[in-house]
Design a protein that fits this description.
The structure is a single chain. 31% of the residues are buried. The protein is globular. The protein has helices spanning 14-22, 46-63, 116-129; strands at 31-34, 37-40, 68-69, 86-89, 105-112, 134-139, 144-152, 155-163, 167-168, 178-179. The chain starts with 13 loop residues before the first helix and ends in a 6-residue tail after the last strand. It has one domain (44-183): tt1808, chain A, CATH 3.90.1570. With 185 residues, the protein is of the alpha+beta class. InterPro entries: Nuclease_put_TT1808 (IPR012296), Restrct_endonuc-II-like (IPR011335), Uma2 (IPR008538). GO terms for molecular function: endonuclease activity.
């Protein structure tokens, strides 16, 4: 019986990824740097695109456009720069000359259409370990919002599900609730 030798994984550093992007070998927005690997992002279907626009618009109304980022990297660990569908920073986006870090984020949002398992597991652990206080998953298929608060280790202690008719307010804007349907296509 032959033994199957698996190829050795060659993790990338953040500097190597930047060289690939700067050299035009990787197109920005087509991949994410997760756990030392450059992973190809799934193509976005129309429902995902529409929901992402709605999320961004709702967050801009609550926080101001200058504090909201979308589909851009945030540095959550030495080997991971995920690109959430939307995020809110604690200072204007224009004030950053480098990639914002987890400490700069007050809210991170992923829009899940075909990626719910990934967003509820891999992304959730990344954001919890990075101590991002609030992580939302807009579950397009089930028309609901999964809200994760109070990170501890690689999970969140406070996890709640809101239906499309319910209201929720971000931790950093408790007096400004929005209805979940505002986020859905």
């Amino acid at each position: 019986m032959e033994t199957l030798a698996l190829p050795r994984r060659l993790p990338l550093t953040r500097a190597q990824v930047r060289l690939l992007v700067d050299g035009g070998l990787v197109v920005p927005g087509t991949s994410e740097y997760i756990h030392g690997d450059l992973l190809e992002k799934m193509p976005q279907n129309p429902r995902h695109v529409h929901a992402t626009k709605r999320v961004r618009r709702a967050l801009e109304q609550l926080f101001g456009w200058e504090f909201v980022g979308s589909q851009a990297p945030i540095q959550v660990s030495e080997d991971s720069d995920p690109e959430p569908d939307a995020f809110v920073l604690n200072q204007p986006t224009e004030s950053f000359s480098e990639t914002p870090t987890a400490a700069d984020c007050v809210l991170v949002v992923e829009v899940s259409d075909a990626t719910l398992g990934w967003d509820k597991n891999i992304k959730l652990r990344l954001y919890a370990l990075a101590h991002i206080d609030e992580y939302w998953i807009v579950d397009v298929a089930h028309r609901r919002l999964l809200v994760h608060r109070t990170p501890q280790g690689e999970d969140y202690l406070d996890i709640r599900t809101y239906t499309e008719t319910e209201q929720v307010a971000p931790l950093s804007r408790p007096s400004a609730p929005l209805t979940v349907s505002e986020l859905l296509p």
